[in-house]
Fold this sequence. Notes:
By secondary structure, the protein is α/β, with parallel strands linked by helices. It has twelve helices and eight strands. The protein has a single domain, classed as Rossmann fold (3-Layer(aba) Sandwich), CATH 3.40.50.300. Strands 3-4-2-5-1-6-7-8 form an eight-stranded mixed beta sheet, with helices on both faces.
Amino acid sequence: MNRGKVLAVHSYKGGTGKSVVSTNLAAIFSRKGKDVCLIDLDLRAPSLHKVFNGEGGKFRVNDFLDGRCEPGDIIFDASKMLGTPGRLLAILADPSMGAIREAISKDRGREMIALRRLISLNEYLQREMGVNYIIIDTSPGMSYSSINSVAVADLVLVLTTWDASDLSGSKEMIGELYHVLEKKATVLMNKVPAKLLTGSWRERTIKRLTKTLALPVIELIPCYCDVLAQERSTIMTLEMPEHPFSRSLFRVAEHLEKE
Ligand SMILES: Nc1ncnc2c1ncn2[C@@H]1O[C@H](COP(=O)(O)OP(=O)(O)O)[C@@H](O)[C@H]1O
Ligand SMILES: [Mg+2]
């Protein structure tokens, strides 16, 4: 079997940029002709449905994880809409309050069933659909569903900001979760204050971050008002490939390809 790679985009805190980064990485790989599946597994705060303007099938990933449908029922092919040469498949989550409440209240037993279903979904995507990359946009922190996403990943891209509580939480999470599961992980620092990137500050920032998290740091991305101002449906690497935010993500993708 020509096995694809499963990448979990994770962080300790919410709002670090997981959804934006996951979407753009999926777009970059499919722009390069790879077949990609982007999965919204942040069932507590779904957002990828906004990227695809409410498109998608009748069923959501929640239905699949709870055994209410088959993998084919939740996959939406967004390649035509986005004009990418490789397939960009999307699996969206249910943003309704009822679904969010249900996701939050899931106990460990049901999360174990969801984990088995997630493993079978990944196998289906790789074996039946020939997907090269599965990119999982995860829930932040250490909820059962985040742990499931990290557990099935070959590689974790952990996003952090310069915020002190984010950094200390990320450090603990890396020790408690990635090390225990023996996961290969790499760090992207997002929304970095411009000052920390000028002159010798850049080196110092990378040094401090590498020392604190004890993981390789692959990119520092500044805070750009342009990014904040975009609609959710704007995929910057497709629509503004020359923007420095896009260029950073092209470098991240290149790095991940080599992992
Ligand atoms: N480098 C950046 N500069 C400015 N805004 C950013 C940057 N990265 C992400 N954002 C914005 O931050 C917000 C949260 O990003 P999002 O991807 O939804 O985070 P998460 O999925 O981790 O909760 C979004 O409005 C997004 O556009
Ligand atoms: Mg998100």
